[in-house]
Amino acid sequence: MVPLLIVLLLALVLFGAGFAVKFLWLVAAVLIVAWLLGFVVRPAGHGGRRGRWYRW
């Protein structure tokens, strides 16, 4: 009984970790696309000239 519970718990943990890793890859892909779009679509800076789209 105990080995079955350990296997089920391990499967649940690995499934959760796999889902989290896939979700983080999706978030990273969205952030990279937004970052690359920031180089294409730059907002106007002070005085009408084109400025940096980031704050740092």
Automatic annotation (TrEMBL):
Q: Which residues cross the membrane?
A: 26-45
**UniProt keyword Transmembrane, yes or no:** yes
Q: Which UniProt keywords apply?
A: Membrane, Transmembrane, Transmembrane helix
Q: Does the keyword Transmembrane apply?
A: yes
Q: What name does UniProt use for this protein? A: Hydrophobic protein
Q: Which organism is it from?
A: Streptomyces lasiicapitis
